[in-house]
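To: structure subgroup
Subject: Chain for Friday's discussion

All,

I'm putting the inputs and outputs inline so they're searchable in the archive.
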Amino acid sequence: MRPMWESVLGSAAGTFLALLPVTDPLGAVPIFYSLTSSGSDSYRRRQARLTTIHVLWLLAGFLLVGKVVLEFFGISFAVLRIAGGLLIAQTGWEMVNSHRHEGDTALAANTSGDIAFAPMAMPLVSGPGAIGVVIGLSSKASGWPDYFGSLVGIALVAGVLYLCLMLGEPLLKRLGRAGTRALNQILGFLILAIALQFMVDGLRELLR
């Protein structure tokens, strides 16, 4: 039997390494700054903080009770992927079509609201892939040291995400207004592609 601290450290390291590529904190940076480009610095800082908090409690919650909740409501990962794809698609469509509105009113309307939970935390960062990872870790946990270690790993991933979102601000200032508008539309198209892939993967699983 391993010492308790080894179980905690092993679970923390395993969770961190498993979640980091799935959550992709670096990949979230350009999307975050596109969605918040017309907001103030304090608005972006608040959204970065809230996004991190939402990711933290979502992943921790799914680690502890996620499998039970999904089974209780009869929700499959395939349906979760399709629902997440629809949510992402709405955001991507608004970003692609923001140039059709007078000035930046459409984008301003989008970025003056709360984007921390949807679409940033759910489903872009803590999407079906990340949820699947933590539920898988939960099923392998043999005691509270494993759960505690996984919670530490989730907290470390959330910390990396927060640093990435906060340190990405210089990029937005270098791009300027015109560059940010162009980036919005390019990323909007990519987000639409991600959304479609989510839905296709979900449909493929449902039809198996």
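Points worth raising on Friday:
The longest helix spans residues 169-206.
The CA atoms of residues 31 and 187 lie 7 Å apart.

D.
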